[in-house]
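dumping the sequnces here before i forget
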Amino acid sequence: MRPNTQHAYDHVAGIYFPIAAAVFVAVVIALGALLVLGARRRTPGRRREANGLEAVYAVLLAATVGVLVWVTFTAESPIDRLVPRPAVRIRVIAAQWSWTFEYANGARVHAVSTWAPPVAVLPAREEIQFDATSRDVIHGFWVPGLHYLRQVFPGHTTTFDLLFARPGRYQGACAVYCGELHSQMLFAIRAVSPPAFRRWLARHRRSR
Amino acid sequence: MSAAAPALRELPARGLASTDHKRIAINLGAVAFVFFVAGGVLALIMRAQLAADGGVVSENVYNQLFTMHGSTMVYLVVVPMALAAGLYLVPLQVGAAAVAAPRLALAGLWLLVSGGVTMWCGFLTSGGAAQASWWGFDPLSDLPHSPGSGMDLWLYGVVLVTVAQMLWAGCILGTVVRRRAPGMTLLRMPVFTWTMVVTCLMVLFAFPALLVALCLLWAQRHGGGVLAGNQGAVAYQQLFWFYAHPVVYVMFFPFLGMAAEVVATFSRRRFFGYPAFVVALLAFSGMSMTVWGHHMFTFGQVTNKYFSLTSTALVVPAGIEYFDFLGTLWRGAVRFTTPLLFALAFLVQFLVGGLTGVILASPPLDYGLNMSYFVVAHFHYTIFAGSAFALFAGIYFWFPKVTGAMLREGLGRVHFVLMVIGTNLTFFPMFILGADGMTRRIAVYPPGRGWQPLNELETAGAGLIALATMVFLVNVGISLRRRRPAGDDPWEGQTLEWATSSPPPRLNFATLPPIRSFAPLLDLREAAPAPPGLADGS
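..and the predicted 3d for all of it:
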């Protein structure tokens, strides 16, 4: 499987979330045990510090940081990188409050603040390069199913690659608050097999 | 010192012009609490809207509500509350008779009131209050996208209160530097005072960036061309987050310090690992100035890995702080008072916020969760489930010192239980909704996603928080009306504020006990353990 955002998210989450849960449980158990012991005592024990232990612990923390950062960096690099020859390039234009998807052959999908946005069709299992920009304020191109958000700025084209590993329907939303109808600034993508995508594209040569 | 004209002394409102740091801090806390209730009412309206999935208010009004809720809580409630606690306690804890530059502190009180009222006046304008979120970020906040004077009033209000906050930070830091009692060396300052030192350093170093950002925004709105296009948008957020990440720790450290004093006192031990804790605080506050870019991971225009590294590295000082809390309880004799209960809930619940913070510091995870309800859950766990709980721990702990009367323990426990249930009901489901794709700052969510039941649950939780707050206010009312005198030192405190009367006299101390550590009253008790109750008079 080529690196993709879903895979990177699942990989990193599979390490981070269990560690976080384990740390939480460990602290709660330690706290609970200390409270049970402490509730029994009438007078406190003598003052005691544990500087050596604390230093060892700090080193362990730093080592944990090292592991976490290594996991993050190795997962991030491939998804930040642009592939040299994407299968498809598509232009995305965000505006208050609409999304426009422009294909190289002139096909166009335009979603204007609606709960049932028209569907942009894209190939599954192929690298797709997005060139996204905004007409007015900052918007956020977010596909929760891909675990991917990229913010979109006026006067600037931001380029990123995505890969839909599984065919199917993907909901999309503007994630960056952008004014009155932000809630309804939705889009939808259907990832289909590459041949089905080419057929769809040929049928939609002109804008609709 | 008290050179007020005799005529002024006769006025019932003379407390409003007092230069006594304790009076200023009490007024400040009261003002911040009024704004807390006001901001909470906005949150309740938002929760009603989300439980019903729309129909309570329009999208336009909803956008004003969340903008003003966030702005109120950050600018008018939590930061002022944190600094108010410092203004009250730091002079007492370092054995000073007064705060440094008290008139500046008083000016800050009036700037806060003016700024808050200015900001809220937006609701009276025809276009309504500001609607560009508490970030006020460009280009959404510029004139074409936010016409109307609500946005300008927000801008003026934030400038006024930010100046106020910098004045208080200067006063507190000045007190620490210039007004410490003989014997009070830097490494004998109480833990809370140290948390205030690093807080004030962050205020003084980071808050000017917000003033710069707001001045640029003002110029953009009233002349234009300053924050143009992509570069303007990115520049604003660089400046804003350079302020707004340290401000997160300004809204954390003082409350961490309160919890530390409470945990030490109610386990009858001096705070464990004091030097390491102080070093961790200093490192943490220094590093807080290096992590702002993690708010911009999804820009595609920021060096993500650098900011991911610095943000994740915060695990080290934060982990040391938790270690020291546990070490303080170790071999302690624990008394489960209301302040301790709130402090313990702070430790557990803040941990949820802190650990999810580590998760959000990893760009591959942040790409999937940024701007979702997961983030909303994360920061409410830090600021509300964390800091607000420690604040209540502090209020129950120091209320006897401030007023001379004890708060009722029974009502305090009711308050605590309602708060814990309400808080977790409100904020935990947000993690699930965010991971499921619910965007933050939406007035209505799309149909057919099945998000309504969890939203209804959250709204029920918010109702419990409101109920808990009412129980707290009833507790304050009853405790002030039917007073149970506190005496100088009701809890067997460890720091100097417990060595004076409750409330302390105008100049704080008649005499000071010898100061040989950061817990001078504990030293006295340990030196002469026999007769309890004699320790304070020596």
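The longest strand of chain A covers residues 88-95.
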